[in-house]
Amino acid sequence: MIRFAHPLLPSLSDFDRRLRQIWSEGRLSNRGQQLEELESRLQQHLRCENISLFCNGTVALLLGLRAMGLQGEVITTPLTFPATVHALEWAGLTPVFCDVEADSLGLDPACVERAITEKTSAILAVHVFGLPCNVTALEAIARKHSLKLIFDAAHAFGLEVDGRPVADFGDLTMFSFHATKLFHTAEGGALIYKDDDLKEKLHLLHNFGIRNEEYLPVPGINGKLNEIQAALGLCVLDILDQERTRRALVAARYARNLAQINGVTLLQPGPNVHPSYQYMAVRIGPGAPLSRDEVFERMRGSGVIARRYMSPLCSSIDFYSHLPSAALENLLEASRSEKEILCLPFHGSLTDEEIDFVCEIIRG
Ligand SMILES: *Cc1c(COP(=O)(O)O)cnc(C)c1O
Q1: Which end of the chain lies in a sparser environment, N or C, as judged by fewer CB atoms within 10 Å?
Q2: Whole-prediction pTM value?
Q3: Ligand 1 centroid vs 82 CA: distance in angstroms?
Q4: What is the rounded CA–CA span in Å between residue 216 and residue 210?
Q5: What is the pLDDT of residues 207-245, one digit of tens each?
Q6: Is residue 76 lining ligand 1, measured as CB closer than 6 Å?
Q7: What confidence tens digit (pLDDT) does each residue in 335-360 have?
Q8: Ligand 1 atom 6 nearest Cα
Q9: Atom 15 of ligand 1: nearest residue by CA position
Q10: 176 Cβ closer than 6 Å to some ligand 1 atom
């Protein structure tokens, strides 16, 4: 059996040391020492000014949308995990699907510009599989039309473009700290944002809207990250570079093995990008020895777990398929990619033999 992913598990003795700190403090949630420390460590690690932590990435995104006071339509991609689009729905916004670019798999700037109406308030793009969106073009469009630009960077922790941390682009960026993500707190999430005024709004929204005992200015929700999750995150942060180094070797072996196969392209970010090492996505297109689905079935038969992420497209989910923008002819590139992309097993504990075995199946 070759596992698809493996959560980063710090040593139990490191975790135990932090649990002992929590026990002696006697504080399990509501901004204790662990959360304060994690926040400042992440600020350094991600080189950002404003960061807020949440119980998961979906709630983080929802509260970010609410805190920005958005209304009307938000242009987004169908090639994402449903949480991206659900967050819009929960925030009372109308998703408008737009096609993606063939290489970055991010929102196609030309399609975005065509989809803008007087109701559009924001663009919500996704750095899917850790491939950076066309950030410069999207920023230019957002500026030209006075729209907010938001990124779902759940796959992009540590991603850098032209030497800049990925959260430098746009107004607000969400990270997920779910156990399947490279950096994780078992469950958790974060927002990084430019506008200083969002800090207090987000704090209120994630803590029942309570400013003080007498004053509750907004109907907030419970979106807090607790001390045990923060402690786990601090331990994971300590072993992150080691895992990144291992994953870089795994990525290089995949790249070498799959370089010369007809119709097969590894979806790796370009040379100006420091990768996030979150997923190993491969496009298995026309001319390949086996189709994407044949590869998937053969892998399953041999005990290799691969994933057909992001299929079905969010625009095909029953709840959203009635939207005019969900029409297939509006989303040709996304529909093609949905049928061709396969995410291969990817984690630091894969052996050379396992990587070679996976690649042999693709070779047919
Ligand atoms: C994991 C993920 C999310 C949701 O994050 P949670 O922390 O699990 O709520 C959102 N968007 C994308 C693209 C994801 O992969």
Answers
A1: N
A2: 0.98
A3: 8
A4: 5
A5: 999 999 899 999 999 999 999 999 999 999 999 999 999
A6: no
A7: 999 999 999 999 999 999 999 999 99
A8: 57
A9: 154
A10: yes
